[in-house]
Amino acid sequence: EGLRREVAKLRGSRRDRRNAPENDAEGEQLPQPPSSPAEEMLLHLMLLDEQAIERAAKGVNLAWLSPGVASLAIQEVLQQYNAHQWKGPNGLIGESPSDEKTRLISKLLLEMWVNKRPEVAVAQCIATLEKQWTEMRLRDLRKELARPELSAHELNILCQQSMEFQRRLMEIGHFLATRDVLPADGHSSETVY
Fold it and tell me: What is the pTM of this model?
């Protein structure tokens, strides 16, 4: 029932926003950057299943998350879960239906999406987040390697880091390619997602 009220408020606020000016000059908060599809899918799984939260708590490195709305909600769920204060999705829904986090959570909860193997889907989301972060770090390393003033020692360190990131990308790629072949314990052989 509370969710229905939130959805009704959300629909009403959409009508109000159509008639409102785009930006308030008095410092209204700008919209959050977009979240990745993997972040939204992981959040959706976490909202539906406490085992997904447990798996995410063990496998997600917060550095892998973007500054988007879904990742902020993921962090909030993990904080509540780790503090033994998780009471379900309603605890995340704010007072204001115009709140981006409230809108996203309401949207995700209204989506009828069933996954027969949520543990695999969670592992895929976590692996995808790590892959995106690793690719970004590798791009940054390549830029560093292009600097002409690097000493031999610095060059050696950056090359080693680059090779480690490339190796990790290959492992993640292999995991994602064989994503439906997860051992019975739900963990890959090398990495726990």
Answer: 0.71
